[in-house]
């Protein structure tokens, strides 16, 4: 009986899939997220709210990745004079901050932070709940209040700014950006080879020996499929590495 090959994957398919995942990751995570911006004080920075924690609070880019990665987040874009709330008392339902910042144990609140209905998922003067899947029109962020407005709800703001001599509000403000990740754009293979070159010679030899043992185990494992004529599936590969990992631990 011929077995379906829907679940099979060649080495080339796997490499291409891995490269695609790496490309998507670089687009989604353009900067480093090891450092919380709390020590920088009140700055203009990208801010995120958390629907999962259900709290009128905002966090920096790093905390959105490191502390709330598995939560449902709201991207509020740039907010001025804002300090990260993650890990503070009564913020984010007291969800802990995984980026240890000693100052957060001393400074309990961010009294100067300002919160509007954006932090609850509502936008514009019409107070509409924003749904990216259903929103069809273009929205614009006000440079004064930094709320977001539908095009039809804006009105002639530019003329109002001119008539009140406050065109200076259009001057660009500096916004904190996450530190650039120097590994962005590089594959895991390239990064791995670079790290391998930094390892001491003895460790390199041990690593190569371990790789050789793994290759021999794989060859032996695949021989049974060759002899029986069975197609190797993704589940078979996962089972092999699950057993290999168990043997390494024990």
Automatic annotation (TrEMBL):
Q: Superkingdom of this entry's organism?
A: Eukaryota
Q: How is this protein annotated for GO cellular component?
A: cytoplasm
Q: What are the UBR-type domain coordinates in residue numbering?
A: 34-102
Q: Where is the signal peptide?
A: none
- PROSITE patterns registered for this protein in UniProt: ZF_UBR
Task: Name the SUPFAM superfamilies on file.
Answer: FYVE/PHD zinc finger
Molecular function terms from GO: ubiquitin protein ligase activity; zinc ion binding
Listed InterPro entries = UBR7, UBR7-like_UBR-box, Znf_FYVE_PHD, Znf_RING/FYVE/PHD, Znf_UBR
Q: Where are the zinc fingers (UBR-type)?
A: 34-102
Keywords for this protein? Metal-binding, Zinc, Zinc-finger
Please identify the protein, giving its name as recorded: UBR-type domain-containing protein
């Amino acid at each position: 009986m011929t077995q379906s090959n829907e679940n099979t994957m060649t080495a080339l398919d796997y490499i291409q899939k891995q490269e695609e995942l790496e490309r998507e990751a670089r687009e989604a995570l353009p900067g480093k997220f090891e450092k919380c911006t709390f020590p920088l004080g009140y700055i203009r920075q990208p801010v995120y709210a958390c629907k999962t924690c259900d709290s009128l609070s905002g966090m920096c880019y790093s905390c959105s990745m490191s502390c709330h990665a598995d939560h449902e987040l709201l991207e509020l874009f740039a907010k001025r004079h804002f300090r990260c709330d993650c890990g503070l008392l009564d913020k984010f339902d007291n969800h802990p901050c995984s980026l240890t910042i000693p100052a957060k144990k001393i400074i309990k609140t961010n009294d100067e932070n300002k919160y509007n209905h954006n932090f609850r998922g509502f936008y514009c003067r019409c107070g509409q709940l924003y749904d990216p899947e259903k929103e069809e029109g273009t929205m614009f962020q006000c440079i004064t209040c930094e709320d977001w407005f539908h095009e039809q709800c804006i009105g002639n703001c530019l003329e109002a700014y001119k008539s009140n001599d406050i065109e200076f509000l259009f001057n660009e403000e500096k916004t904190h950006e996450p530190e650039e990740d120097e590994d962005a754009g590089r594959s895991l293979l390239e990064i791995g080879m670079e790290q391998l070159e930094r390892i001491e010679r003895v460790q390199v030899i041990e690593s190569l020996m371990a790789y050789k043992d793994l290759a021999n185990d794989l060859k032996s494992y695949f021989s049974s499929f060759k002899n029986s004529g069975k197609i190797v599936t993704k589940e078979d590969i996962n089972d092999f590495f699950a057993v290999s990992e168990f043997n390494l631990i024990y």
